[in-house]
Amino acid sequence: MDFKRRRLAVTLRNQLNYPLQFNPFVFSKLFLLWIAVGIVGGVIAGFYWTVLEGLLHFLAQFQGLYVIPIMAVAGLLAGLVIHFLGDPGEMDLIVNNIRFKGGRLEPKNNPSMILSSWLCIASGGSAGPEAPLVQVVGSTGTWIARKLRIKGEDLRSLSIAGMASAFTALFGAPLGGSLFALEIQHHKHISEYYQALMPALVASCSSYVIFLLVTHIGIGPTWVFPIYATPELNDFFYAMLYALAGTAAGWLFIFTVRQCRRIFQKLHVPIYIKMMIGGLIIGTIAYFVPLSRYFSHDELNVLLEEQFTLEFLLILLGAKILAIAFTVTSGWRGGFIIPLFFVGATVGMIVNTAFPGQNLPLIMVSCMAAINACVTRTPISTTILLATLTGFHHFIPILFASLTGFFLAPKTPLINAQLGVKE
User: Fold this and answer.
1) CA 332/CA 376 separation, integer angstroms
2) Fewer Cβ within 10 Å of end Cβ, the chain: N or C?
């Protein structure tokens, strides 16, 4: 024991004599690669978003009955792109490749993903750009790693860093985007990917700065939420209570998606016909309930600003769930995170309208957190993302709601690859 103490004392004295130096890791090859992946991701995300905004403004001219043929044609064209350029896959494929193929995301189908998702999102599909960008930027990380002969866990980390930088560019939350890229891999824990957290954070920060420079989007909450007063102890319990409504909506959404998936699996037709049929259905829903159209990035602010009756909110809830379900099961490309937040906000409005006098911002953020955590199994990142997007900076009530949705989620996740079983 005395020997160990003397050795420790000598070590401490030697450390005191060491000159102060920079951490050599900052100048390492891997650190610079993480920054490079983030910069490339920010450029790609900025270019993608700029073109998408232009297409959205152009196609937004077509309203009323024109919505139905526009979305049918968009589905047909997007399907033809996928038919001739290759199927880029969906989130299940990304998670499977990260888990079972050493993190290798194939970039060969990126042109197909970019073109088809532009058509699907801009024409009014109820799916957002996060999933396409995750595939494109994540596979770019893989491509960079291959060119530099990087293998093993470093390659996987670069792919995850690319995914995180894509999430961050769109959501404006480097920490939330990084954790989402890790949490989405598995619904039980993220410990096996913890070593990828630092690459994801570094890439996310550089991606966010570049994305802001390219798009000139301001820094601040995306949605203008009502002001939330200082939290009280009871708010944590109310958050869990309100989260039950969001979780129920999550169960309904998962059930609806599975039923729609069965319907389209029975259609033995080419992908472009299936997507055209999907476009007709989504377009018809959008014609009767216009607020259900698009991926709800802007529509959520409309929901917050205007007053709606309980009957309309219930119709909107059903229409939006059906629109998202038909979008993601008919082959249309896009992600459902932001649309799910819209569904959660609608549920919150329904609860507040049915039982007036409640804490509206707490109800809405609780329902939004619960439904997303229920469907995507990402309670930690959901908490941080929502706090950033809504300006609701009291994390604990959101976390209580997220955990409620996570633990009350169905046994089998919607993203089958989260089961951890190779398909």
Assistant:
1) 19
2) N
